[in-house]
Amino acid sequence: MPRSPIRTDSAPQPSGAYSQALKAGDFLFLSGQGPFDAEGNRVGETVADQVRQTLTNLDQVARAAGATLQDAVRVIAYLSSLELFDEYDAVYREFFTEPFPSRSTIQSDLIGMDIEIDAIIWLGD
């Protein structure tokens, strides 16, 4: 199956050997994004601000492939503490409507931020 990288200047550029997203068949695999603007500067003092920026970044990458986060079928969030879940979930609901994508939330030792999120988008009809 052919794979095509997706890139946009509207979201932070990869800091390592990975693509912002990779299109494979009818799916778009979005790499993890964090609370950074397109220039790579950390955004947001509150968890809500960080989640909002992170989801905005993911949406920008999805849009570069002709989709939006509303097309997500799977979302995985990494939180610095699961005690932040309620604040994360409140902002998450600003970006997604029913039927919600399948989702996992994992506590992780993030450095310099409270959230990282990746997603899988369905590009089919």
Task: Briefly say what this structure is.
By secondary structure, this protein is of the alpha+beta class. It is built from 2 helices and 6 strands. A 6-stranded mixed sheet has the order 1-2-3-6-4-5, covered by helices on one side.
Explain what this protein looks like in three dimensions.
This protein has 125 residues and is α+β, with helices and mostly antiparallel strands. 23% of the residues lie in helices and 30% in strands. It is built from two helices and six strands. It has helices at residues 47-64, 85-95; strands spanning 3-6, 21-24, 27-33, 72-79, 102-107, 115-122. It has a six-stranded mixed β-sheet, covered by helices on one side. α1 (47-64) runs parallel beside α2. The chain is globular and about 40 Å long.
What are the main properties of this structure?
single chain; 125 residues; alpha+beta; 60s Ribosomal Protein L30, Chain: A; 6-stranded mixed beta sheet; 6 strands; globular
- Helix % is 10-25%
CATH architecture designation: 2-Layer Sandwich
Order of helices and strands: EEEHEHEE
By CATH reckoning, the class would read Alpha Beta
Number of helices: 2
Strand order of the largest sheet: 1-2-3-6-4-5
Question: Which spans of ≥5 residues are poorly predicted at pLDDT below 50?
Answer: none
Q: Approximately what portion of the residues adopt beta-strand conformation? A: 25-35%
The global form is globular
Q: Please, how many domains?
A: 1
Give the structural class. Answer: alpha+beta
**First and last CA, distance:** 19 Å
Query: How would a crystallographer describe the biggest sheet?
Result: 6 strands, mixed
What is CATH's topology name? 60s Ribosomal Protein L30, Chain: A
Gyration radius over CA = 14 Å
Number of strands: 6
CATH superfamily: RutC-like
Mean pLDDT: 96
